[in-house]
Amino acid sequence: MESESEKKFDPVPSGEEPDSTHFPEQGFEAGLHSQKVASERQSIIELTRDLARLPLDQAAAAIETSAAIAGVSLRASIEFLRAVPEAAPVLAAAELRSWGEIGRRLGMGDVEAAVTFFSAGVNDLNNIPREARPTVFQLCSRQINLSSSVATDTLRKMAALAKTVNSPTALHSVLEIAAEISRRSAKHSADFLEATPRVVDVLNKFEDESLTQNALLLASAFATRAGGIASDAWASLPTALKGLAAGDALRLLDRTGGFLERGGGVALHLMLSGGEILRSLPEVFSDWIDLLWIVAQHGNASLVAFARSGPGFIRGLAGEVERARREIEVDGAPDRRQG
After folding, report:
1. If we measure between CA atoms, which residue out of 131, 219, 228 comes closest to residue 187?
2. Is the separation of the CB atoms in 124 and 155 below 8 Å?
3. Helix 93-109 vs helix 133-146: angle between axes, to the nearest 10 degrees?
4. Cβ-contact 129, 158 below 8 angstroms
5. How far is 310 from 259, CA to CA, in rounded Å?
6. Measured on CA atoms in the order 199, 138, 48, 110, is the torsion positive or negative?
């Protein structure tokens, strides 16, 4: 027989199923949730009907991608479908899939970030040449595996980058290099892109297309062999090339690439020191490089130390040469007057 206390605290009469009349607050919340889900599903159905106006391949890509996003968040999927009609004139079917996949990955960590990402649209990609867009999405897809904030920031800055690098060929090369760097580091690939406007501005001042091509080839070699150091080398180019003639700049880039087999750090130090030597006493540059190869036989530590000490030694040597020239001029001055 049940006690009075047991009867008092029994929330549901025995033999009956609990319903919302016994839990009014829970029932109300459950009702709201079910209405919200039903509303979201209805929105998806209505939005998918609007896709009928798109070409078949784009419509199929949008529907398939929205289904994948819905597995993470219905809200994010709805925002994607809302954005598709405006994105379709800019993005091809494969690019729609890539764009949606980036948003889906964002939604796995932060649904609000995914919703914001889709609602922002793809206006930042309008100025990107169509042939370069797959590389943009490859870059961002690799970045998002390591850092979602870096990937979204990269996509947001694409329009400004395209305006700075006004050569489609050079822009494509820059994006490919950044994508290669992003295999190992999202941050360094973003740093590479951040440095690009200044580097391109310096290269354009030489008015030598072959120099720009060689600089991009060197950056690509750095990215393939040394990963993130490529961003440091790229950002250091303006310092290394400052005050050089185009011919000397080409010599420096060529010799720097030769030392990449010794490591990215070695090549970076050589490029910076070599630039100083070419500004101080260019006639000894080739002999200095030959000497570096001899020192390299004793290991990279000795090679880096020798390369870093080279500019100071050469500056001192250049000062001695200049003093000797002045002394010769002074000593020869009376002879010329007598003559």
Report:
1. 228
2. yes
3. 20
4. no
5. 16
6. negative
Q: String of b and e for 184-211 (b: at least 16 CB within 10 Å)?
A: ebbebbbbbbbbbeebbebbbebebeeb
Residue-level pLDDT at 57: 93
Structure tokens belonging to residue 335: 């002879």
Q: What percent of the chain has pLDDT over 70?
A: 79
Q: Is 277 within 8 Å of 284 (Cβ atoms)?
A: yes
Q: Where are the domains of the chain?
A: 42-121
Q: Residues 283-323: pLDDT tens digits?
A: 889 999 999 999 999 999 999 998 888 777 676 665 666 66
Average pLDDT, the chain: 84
Count of C-beta atoms within a 10 Å radius of residue 90:
18
> Which carries the bigger pLDDT value, residue 172 or residue 14?
172
Task: HSE, CB side, 13 Å, CA atoms: give it for residue 197.
Answer: 10
SS3 3: coil
The reported pLDDT for the residue numbered 325 is: 65
More confident residue, 33 or 246: 246
